[in-house]
Design brief:
Structural class: mainly alpha
Largest sheet: 2 strands, antiparallel
Strand order of the largest sheet: 1-2
Distance between the termini: 25 Å
Order of helices and strands: HEEHHHHHH
Shape: flat
Strand content: under 5%
Radius of gyration: 20 Å
């Protein structure tokens, strides 16, 4: 086995195992453990606080793009926080500028937040702007998928019950007929928390890989 393969395979195995464990945990959390009413198909309506399985993979990848070390952990944690806060500001203010069906308020706020997120580079090299954009996009994607609450009327839905889903005025406009509807404040909290989970998965995968990777034999004198 080549030296390159010996270096890569432990990381691949560790990330594969952790990816399996993360998916099992996050999906069960969202649809079985922390939930509202039973949907009657073996799944339940997700609660307002969710762990969104795909979001964690974004910061997990960014962790390695930023160097895969302790410094990278700090950079991506900050990037996740800045990106999520910028998204929250967008969710809160864009609908006050232009509501449904006009998108220009959203577009304007995205442009303003993009300017701000890049301009923060002036503060120094501690700020990893390449990480803030994917984190902002992840939060924005969750907002769209869960009903564009605060822009679309009742987009976040009224609750986590079957009665709410059965009433068109209460169901929300999120995916799966409102099952994934979510108030925009909870979009921020859930997305940010999941982005942080991704950073933790990154540092754990790096540390575990370092622990299990065979060390090269010392050269003979």
């Amino acid at each position: 086995m080549s030296a390159r393969a010996k270096a890569i395979l432990p990381l691949a195995i560790v990330i594969g195992v952790l990816s399996f464990l993360w998916c099992e945990f996050a999906l069960n959390f969202q649809f079985h453990w922390v939930t509202g009413d039973d949907l009657g198909v073996g799944l339940s309506i997700p609660a307002d606080f969710q762990l969104i399985v795909w979001v964690a993979f974004i910061t997990w990848g960014l962790f390695f793009a930023a160097g895969g070390d302790n410094a990278a952990f700090g950079k991506i944690f900050i990037a996740a926080t800045f990106g999520a806060v910028a998204a929250l500001i967008t969710f809160a203010l864009a609908p006050k500028i232009a509501d449904l069906p006009d998108f220009w308020g959203i577009s304007l706020m995205v442009g303003i937040m993009a300017f701000v997120l890049v301009a923060i580079l002036i503060a120094g090299d501690w700020y990893y702007v390449a990480g803030t954009f994917p984190c902002f996009a992840a939060c924005f994607g969750v907002w769209v998928a869960t009903g564009l609450d605060n822009w679309a009327p009742n987009g976040g839905g009224a609750g986590n019950t079957l009665a709410d889903l059965g009433d068109p005025a209460l169901a929300g406009s999120g995916a799966f007929g409102g099952v994934l509807s979510l108030p925009f404040g909870w979009v921020f909290i859930s997305a940010w928390a999941t982005l942080v989970c991704g950073v933790v998965l990154g540092i754990v995968s790096a540390k575990v890989t370092a622990a299990v990777t065979p060390k090269p034999a010392a050269a003979e004198a």
